[in-house]
Amino acid sequence: MPSREQAGAPTRARSCQSTVSRVSSRTGHARPCPGPLPETIAHLATKGPRHVPKVTTGRLLREMIDLNSITYYPDPYYKCIQFSSYDRRSVAPDAPGWFANADNTNATDRKNYVRDETVDGRTEHVLAEVDGPGALVRFWSANPWVGEEGRLRIYVDGSDEPVLDASMLDLVDGKVEGFPEPFAVRPPAGKAGNLYFPIPFRNGCKVTHDGDWNGFYYQLNFRQYADSADVDTFSMAELAKYQAIATEVGERLTDAMNLPVQSESVTPFDVTVGPDGEGDIYNEEGPGAITTLTARVSAPNTRDALRQVVLQVFFDGSPTPQIESPIGDFFGSAPGVCPLVSLPFVVESDGTMHCRLAMPFGHWATMRLKNYGPQAVTVSGQIVRGPYEWTDSSMHLRAKWRIDHGVEGRPDGYDWPYLIVSGGGVWVGTSLMLMNPTPIPTPGGGWWGEGDEKIYIDGESFPSTFGTGSEDYFGYSWSSPELFQAAYIGQPRNDGPGNRGYVANHRWHMIDALPFAQSIEFYMELQTHTPTKGISYGRIGYCYTRPGARDDHPQINPSMLVLRDPPAWEVLPAGSAANSVVHEAECLEVVSGRVETESGVLWSAGSQACFAAQEGDTVSFDVPVAGEGAHGVIVCLTKRPGGGACSVSVGDGEGHDIDLVHAALVHLREYSVGEASGDSATLTLTCTRAGHIGIDYVRVAAPRA
């Protein structure tokens, strides 16, 4: 048996009076026993005997794509907690350090993890440790390459031999056998890594890493079951046993666009709702479940209509809607049409939107559209109803939108509520729609999302989920503006440059759903790099709730629904752009080719230089360069429908191939295209695929000291 010598290990909590008491998900220190984890609400109501299904790797895999079972209160009940590298100076909302932001590890003076252990002469950093039955369901890191020579080890049921021993980077890259894509997800730029895969255990789990590390960011999400839960512990043999299920689930996650849903009837609708008008598109008796809602909005100004037409859904006689949201925001498409493909929601580039989150009801369901805008709006689509058994553990879908305009983002942070619910239920998703008016063109300085998620379950005094950054919660990292989509996470909009303009993020909780017996409070810090006034901060919390639940949702009024577009602006060379001189492209001397000027508030100083290019067309600009040494040259280009492709070069330097097409959105991106020295340099754009090519500005960065 290998020797284990703990270095500064805290006392580990054990079960107390036959209740579940776990190591704190925050520090690894023992906390008072909280009492037993609740059983299902149905069982608490009936007090009769029941069959509790066994928890297996196969069952958990199926839950990753089962949009029906998540509508029932979980049986056996579990609590979802998170271990992370959050800054341990955060101890209480009313104490200094609550918004401390050093959310990474340091093996010397900032141990934002559980402890160190010595195993066979090597130091293993303990990232997470829980007692009793449970399942590891999600792993995320902003920088999984840290300590690349080290190993990530997962120990279960007190064994001294890990059930999984792998390179952390290989694991999130889908290179470890049994854990392929799409269970492993790497958003663009190859930085953050996610792994969604269930690893159940009967008698505890510990996760360690032994690489040389500093500045490591991580999150690990666990289900914790009551001691009575029947759990089959994960092993590679178990994985082989359920390989067919894993393959099927992987195929569904890969092809989320075509996820099959149950259907017993289809109700088409095509309604026109006038200004200040309303109309019902569905009124049906139960029991049943809406398994798909498909809608498309048509109006003279479709973008505004998607925000100003509000979807309301009433279940089982509720006088207030359980679902209330602008119709576009409900589908995660905001503002305007932002194409996305995820497990529960799909938005196509033509504006057709699909919701596959099931909406069960026992007696009656009413779906209504209210138009708070000044134009008539036509909404067409269909509602698919499927068979559903309404039981004592069934829940209604609850989705509530809220927004705050004129918000001031600050480096010291502020906790903003997404949704606070009293009653029993399960949190299943979160969407963010934000307008960031920063004039700083780089993520460094213009970033809005340093803030952490803080999720309180059942009256906790300290959140059992405490994150490391807003983008970390949404599955990416390092303030990346790049658009991406996956089954559970995505960023379908980020206008740019950097993080300026409209931003949309989402995350869907399936295997990592958050059950609550009494209440849930979901907060996210808004914490910006630099003080930023005039932010619009919209968000939706999605959860299933038991009948009788209530929430803190504010009533929607027309002033909330007015889009506050980013104001006219000029690039501010600050943050990571502080060492730059900015040249508006429309003001540069054109030394060859012809360009036109296109105007609009999207572009710095209100316009950009552009040309409708055929393959082989070339435009060259003379760019002033000040100072000695090699200066970096960064261009800001426009991506859009009908965009072309081009090769961009500086002087005699190598060309950089850039594709400027996007299916639906017009947005800006910066590209580093070379270096220049002397008094000036020639910047050349050569069309490699016909289409529109636009250049907003050129940023010349001074040599690094």
Blueprint (SSEs and pairs):
Blueprint: E1 4-7, H1 41-46, H2 57-63, E2 78-84, E3 115-119, E4 122-130, E5 134-141, E6 152-156, E7 164-166, H3 168-172, E8 184-185, E9 193-201, E10 205-209, E11 218-225, H4 236-241, H5 243-254, E12 265-273, E13 278-285, E14 288-298, H6 302-308, E15 309-315, E16 323-326, H7 327-330, E17 340-341, E18 345-347, E19 353-355, E20 359-361, E21 364-371, E22 377-386, E23 396-409, E24 415-422, E25 425-436, H8 443-446, E26 453-457, E27 465-466, H9 470-473, E28 484-485, E29 489-494, E30 501-508, E31 514-516, E32 519-525, E33 532-545, E34 550-551, E35 580-584, E36 589-592, E37 596-599, E38 607-613, E39 618-624, E40 631-639, E41 645-650, E42 656-659, E43 667-676, E44 680-689, E45 691-701
Parallel strand pairs: 16-23
Antiparallel strand pairs: 1-3, 2-11, 3-4, 4-10, 5-9, 5-11, 6-7, 6-10, 8-9, 12-22, 13-21, 14-19, 14-20, 14-22, 15-16, 15-21, 17-18, 18-19, 23-33, 24-32, 24-34, 25-30, 25-31, 25-33, 26-27, 26-32, 28-29, 29-30, 35-45, 36-39, 37-38, 38-45, 39-44, 40-43, 40-45, 41-42, 41-44
